[in-house]
Structure formats: structure tokens, C-alpha cells
Design brief:
With 201 residues, the protein is of the alpha+beta class. The protein has three helices and twelve strands, in the order H-H-E-E-H-E-E-E-E-E-E-E-E-E-E. The termini are far apart.
Length: 201
């Protein structure tokens, strides 16, 4: 058989074209599969982000000067699923389990099992003065804590940093905060730009 004629035969050309088409189809399928996998990862990442973090805008002056009205931050919703709030944590909480319940921001002062009292403008925990190492003003209104507030299991006592202009655990409409009503921990400041980053303080 003439090899040159065999190479140029229609049957061989058709076979070669078919193989090339299959190779191209395989490449296209590989690229599409790669794009699909990336899309799935991105979607899961976005969903995980929505589940773990929540964007909140400060609506009240209770946490000034640490957090100002209008500032935006991310709340870490996952951290208290695997741990408990610590003294000094800045948390976002509700006063009930209702979806429509307003969000409040406060600093954890008292922990479960402790007694918190405010006397002569100072915070006492189990009878000992609590030194926060921060320049907070002397408290003028002790509210419910004037005679001491005992915290049950899963309960926390919170105060706003703006001690004399804050609605917090000193008042009956807030009271002790049950852990199940804590949305999460203030974690990352989004705006303003000069405060962008992990929350300090």
C-alpha cells in the first residue's frame, strides 16, 4: 500500500478529526468542571460568611467613645457557640428571642455565678472593686445594681462604656443577659476607614 495515499485517505482524516474533536471536548469539559468547582466553593464561602458574621451599624451612644453612632462592624456569631463570653468582651445582644427584638451593644462585666454591685460610682464583683484599666467616668446611677445583682447560670451583666448615658443591665427593661440572647462578639470594624480593622478595647 502506498503510505502517502494511506495518510491522505478520507477514512484516516475522518478518524483524526474525530479524535481531535474529542480532545477539544475533553478540554472544554475540564475547564467547565473547574469553573463549576470554583463557583461551588465561592457559594459555600458566602453562605458560611453570612452564617458566621453579621454586619451591624451602631444606633445608640451607649458604647461611646469605643463605638460611635453610625460606625459599622462585623459581629462574630460563631465564637460563643464553642465558648462563653469573657469579662471585657463587647457583645451584641437582644433582650428576647423575638426576631424583631432590637439589637443592643454592651461590655460584659459580670459572669455567671457572680454578684455585681455598683457603690459610690465604682463596680464591685463579689464585693471586690473591679479595676477595668480604662478611663470610664464614675457611675452616677447604680440602678438595679445598687443592692447587688446575682447572676444565675448562663446570665451576664453588661454595661455600656458611656456609663452615664447607657441603657444596660442596671435597668429593668434590659436586666441580666441570658447567653441564648447574645448574638455574638463585636469583632471587626468596617467603617469609618480610620478605624478599619479588628476592634481594640
Amino acid at each position: 500500500m502506498n503510505i502517502r495515499k494511506w495518510k491522505d485517505s478520507p477514512a484516516l482524516k475522518e478518524t483524526r478529526d474525530m479524535l481531535e474533536t474529542k480532545l477539544e471536548d475533553k478540554k472544554v469539559r475540564g475547564i467547565l468542571n473547574w469553573i463549576f468547582q470554583i463557583a461551588v466553593v465561592l457559594i459555600f464561602g458566602i453562605l458560611a460568611g453570612i452564617a458566621l458574621f453579621q454586619s451591624v451599624t451602631v444606633q445608640e451612644s451607649a458604647m461611646e467613645p469605643t463605638l460611635q453612632v453610625g460606625e459599622r462592624f462585623f459581629v462574630n456569631r460563631a465564637v460563643y457557640k464553642v465558648s462563653s463570653p469573657e469579662r471585657g468582651d463587647i457583645i451584641v445582644y437582644k433582650t428576647s428571642g423575638s426576631d424583631d427584638a432590637a439589637l443592643h451593644i454592651g461590655r460584659v462585666i459580670g459572669l455567671p455565678g457572680e454578684t455585681v454591685q455598683i457603690s459610690n460610682g465604682a463596680v464591685l464583683i463579689n464585693g471586690e472593686v473591679y479595676n477595668e484599666n480604662k478611663n470610664f467616668p464614675e457611675i452616677s446611677n447604680a440602678g438595679l445594681a445598687s443592692d447587688g445583682v446575682s447572676l444565675e447560670s448562663g446570665e451576664y451583666f453588661v454595661l455600656g462604656d458611656n456609663r452615664n448615658n447607657s441603657e444596660d443591665s442596671r435597668y429593668g427593661d434590659i436586666g441580666n443577659i441570658n447567653k441564648k440572647y447574645i448574638v455574638g462578639k463585636v469583632w471587626f470594624v468596617i467603617s469609618p476607614k480610620d478605624k478599619f480593622g479588628f476592634l481594640k478595647g
